[in-house]
Amino acid sequence: MSSVKSLLFSHNHHLLSVKGCEAGLDVLAFEGDEALSQPFRYRIEFTSADHAISKEMMLMKAASLTLQAPVAQGFGINVQQPVRVIQGVVTGFERLSTSRDETHYALTLQPRLALLNRSHQNAIYQDQSVPQIVEKILRERHGLRGQDFCSR
């Protein structure tokens, strides 16, 4: 079955996708923190029929949470429309519980920029402007690309 068909006929209000994870992930609940000048942080609880999802499969992988509007009631085929897509990287993962038919998991989704909080290094920079220093650090030490940040 193609992924397009599963998107069109999904009963979930929201979609969770993690790069490299082929298991079906059914979003149960999520909560997020967003503030000015702070990276966002979403905690997403989900279930899956796959009992073997591991930290190694999930941590540090690109992921997205697609928020969808409810399907309009009426006749005919209605497709849920995405309202917002939150893209980031999985920075936390845990298995909450397991039953015979599904396992309950939670993950934390943050922007790649939030990974900068996890490293501390000292250096002296001479004959460079602040934007040049920031760009050099982001590109060389953290592997960020042009689309990950913009300096003006």
TrEMBL record:
Q: Which domain of life is it from?
A: Bacteria
* A matching Pfam family: Phage_GPD
Specify the protein name.
Type IV secretion protein Rhs
- Organism, scientific name: Klebsiella pneumoniae
